[in-house]
Every structure is written in C-alpha cells, then in structure tokens.
Design goal:
Layout lengths: L1 H27 L3 H4 L3 H19 L10 H15 L4 E9 L14 E9 L2 E9 L4
Antiparallel strand pairs: 1-2, 2-3
Length: 133
C-alpha cells in the first residue's frame, strides 16, 4: 500500500512539474524576429564600409589585374552570393578612372548606389566615394 501511494505521489509531482514548466515557457520565449529586425541597416552599413575601404586601399583604378574595378566586381559578386533568399542585395556603380586622383570637392571617381531589400523594408543610398580623401 505504501509503495502504491509513493508511485501515485511521484506521478502526481512529475505531472505538476510538467504543467508548471509549460505554463512558464510562454513567459520565457524569445521573439527571434526582433533580434534581426534591423539587419537591413547592418548589411547596408557593412556594404558601404567595404566599398569605401576598398577604394581607399586600392592603388590603381583599372590598369592592372589587382585594380579597383576588378575588386568592385568581386565585392558585388560576394555580396550577392553571401546573402541568401532572405535579402536582395544590389550594387550599381559608375566608375570614372579619369577622376581617380580627385579629392573633395572635385567630382568623385565612383558613384555607387547600394540597396538591401528584405523583411518588408528597403534600405537604399547613393554615395560619392573618393580614392584620395
């Protein structure tokens, strides 16, 4: 009789713990969508930073194999491959190598339009970037 009562008490306690645990799960769940809500802005800022750093650290515009024009195409390809189906990444640019050594306020050698579309929002901007700053 004592053994049966012990088993009933253990089953009751395990059931009670399970019910309380399930009730508390609703208060501790994480809303994952909030963590990635501003990912568009992060991706966009990263794109601008990579293109700007690349233009300032590249010596030639388009004369050599290691030119800025080649690097820009590599960056464009890398961003397109890196971002899966969640985000659409686009880089369009106009590069004028005759203005490569210009500095502000003269005309910029690179006019780049960058955009990131995903999660119901679109982040877009056009930038004038200089090799010499």
């Amino acid at each position: 009789m004592k053994g049966q009562l012990f088993l009933v008490a253990v089953v009751f306690l395990v059931g009670m713990i399970f019910v309380v645990q399930q009730a508390l799960f609703q208060y501790s769940s994480v809303d994952i969508s909030k963590a990635f809500e501003d990912r568009n802005g992060d991706l966009f800022g990263n794109m601008v930073e990579v293109v700007n750093k690349t233009i300032t650290e590249t010596y030639y515009c388009n004369d050599t194999k290691d030119s800025f024009q080649n690097r820009l195409e590599d960056i464009k390809t890398a961003f397109l491959e890196e971002q899966g189906v969640e985000y659409a990444v686009e880089i369009t640019y106009a590069l004028d190598c005759s203005k490569w050594l210009n500095s502000p306020p003269n005309p910029a050698p690179l006019r780049a339009t960058l955009s990131v579309t995903g999660r119901g929002s679109d982040t877009r901007g056009t930038f004038l970037l200089y090799h010499k700053q």
